[in-house]
Design goal:
single chain, 65 residues, alpha+beta, Ribosomal Protein L24e, Chain: T, two-stranded antiparallel ribbon
């Protein structure tokens, strides 16, 4: 399964580790993802979605719909 937030669309980035001598080795920047159960207020169904920490804050601020 890919590491993508279903709310914000954040996904894994690729960059470099830099040592003291500025030598570059590849690394990954992964989003801070969680599984959350979200209840749809209209139908009453519960959905399990994969959301980043920023996506959870967005859902709390703006709501589900």
């Amino acid at each position: 399964m890919s590491r993508i937030c279903e709310v914000t669309g954040k996904k894994t980035w690729v960059g470099n580790n830099r040592s003291h001598s500025m030598r570059a080795t590849k690394r990954k920047f992964v989003p801070n993802l969680f599984y959350k159960n979200i209840k749809d207020p209209e139908t009453g169904l519960v959905y399990r979605i994969r959301v980043s920490a920023a996506g959870i804050r967005t859902l709390r601020k703006k709501g589900i719909m």
